């Protein structure tokens, strides 16, 4: 399977938009806060997997 040129452009635009949103949402957080968030998300993920 291969991307068409139009698909590649759409993928690049979507990737750029996603990165912009992530920078906007998480950009103000420091490294320690991001580390804490990562740990909390891991705990949530483990909880959901255990419940399944």
Task: Summarize the model shown.
The mean pLDDT is 93. This protein has helices at residues 5-26, 31-51. By secondary structure, the chain is mainly α.
Describe this structure in words.
The chain has 52 residues and is mainly α. Helix content is 83%, strand content 0%. The longest helix has 22 residues, at 5-26. The protein is flat.
Q: Indicate the overall shape.
A: flat
Calculate the terminal CA-CA distance, rounded to whole Å.
Answer: 33 Å
The description of the largest β-sheet is: none
Roughly what is the average pLDDT, rounded to an integer?
93
* Spans of at least 5 consecutive residues with low confidence: none
Structural class by secondary-structure content: mainly alpha
In which range does the helix fraction lie?
Answer: over 70%
Identify the quaternary structure here. single chain
Question: What fraction of the residues are assigned to beta strands by DSSP?
Answer: under 5%
Q: Which structural traits does this protein have?
A:
52 residues; mainly alpha; 83% helix; 2 helices
Topology, please?
Elements: H1 5-26, H2 31-51
